[in-house]
Write a structure and sequence with these properties.
Blueprint: E1 13-16, E2 21-24, E3 41-43, E4 46-50, E5 60-72, E6 75-86, E7 92-107, E8 113-127, E9 133-147, E10 156-167, E11 173-176, E12 184-186
Antiparallel strand pairs: 1-2, 3-5, 4-5, 5-6, 6-7, 7-8, 8-9, 9-10, 10-11, 10-12
């Protein structure tokens, strides 16, 4: 069963909804443009599905169980169980993936990898509520990391929250915290240019000399 959903991007722009603060890196990354034209493939141990019936508004439905793997180009989503919804043309319009945890990953045009995991991933390749953008909603101990340096792929920008929404078309993310713990993000420092001298540590302030003691009166 195949479909051809929309493209997706993996950039480094992130919007923290809880704090209302936008954090933007200096060089946005663009997702693999070829992903848009690739078919969507799903494999699993078993599946049970029905197509959308003629003159029906109810979408078709497929349930995949056991080692579920969804791929489209460089996009890959894995989990223990997935429920897919199909339109009248048997195109995938939504996939809900559950796992312990479920995983998602995708490369960008700089061959930098975005990876995420959560208890549940709700993926819509063409979300009408978001101007037709692709949307992946990670819920339950959500975590996303993104490689930032082609020369050192161990450098990662990281995001953690109860819920992270990743826009696969314009590369924005929103993070939410439903409890007392805040959304947490980690940004790696900018790489030093070749030959640059390391920053010198700050010079500690000079010690203050002790105050002079007043002269003592002489004994008679």
């Amino acid at each position: 069963m195949q479909s051809t959903p929309s493209t997706r991007r993996a950039s480094a722009r992130a919007l923290i909804a809880v704090l209302g603060v936008a954090l933007v890196t200096s060089v946005p990354a663009v997702a693999k443009q070829s992903d848009r034209s690739q078919p969507t493939n799903v494999t699993s141990k078993s599946f049970d599905g029905t197509q959308q019936q003629a003159n029906s508004t109810q979408p078709g439905k497929v349930i995949w169980t056991g080692n579920v793997v969804l791929t489209q180009g460089t996009l890959k989503i894995t989990g223990d169980k997935a429920t897919g919804f199909l339109d009248a043309d048997n195109q995938i319009i939504r996939v809900i993936v559950d796992g312990t945890p479920a995983h998602v990953e995708q490369m960008d045009d700089q061959d930098l990898l975005m990876r995420g995991h959560a208890t549940n991933i709700d993926y819509k390749p063409d979300d009408a509520a978001n101007s037709g953008n692709g949307i992946a909603v990670l819920t339950g101990n959500a975590h996303v990391d993104k490689q930032t340096d082609a020369a050192d792929k161990s450098k990662l920008n990281q995001s953690d929250g109860d819920k992270i929404t990743y826009n696969t078309t314009n590369s924005t993310m929103t993070g939410e915290s439903n409890g007392p713990e805040p959304v947490h993000m980690t940004f790696q420092p900018k790489a030093q240019p070749p030959g640059a001298a390391p920053a010198k540590p700050a010079t500690p302030p000079a010690a203050t000399p002790p105050a002079a003691k007043p002269p003592q009166p002489k004994k008679p």
